Amino acid sequence: MKIVNIEDIKGTEREVQGEGWTSYRMLLKKDGMGFSFHETIIPAGAELHLWYKNHLEAVYCVAGNGSIENKATGEVHQIHDGVLYALDQHDAHILRGGTADMRLVCAFNPPVTGRETHDADGSYNLVED
Amino acid sequence: MKIVNIEDIKGTEREVQGEGWTSYRMLLKKDGMGFSFHETIIPAGAELHLWYKNHLEAVYCVAGNGSIENKATGEVHQIHDGVLYALDQHDAHILRGGTADMRLVCAFNPPVTGRETHDADGSYNLVED
Question: Nearest CA of chain A to the CA of B27: how many Å?
Answer without folding.
Answer: 8
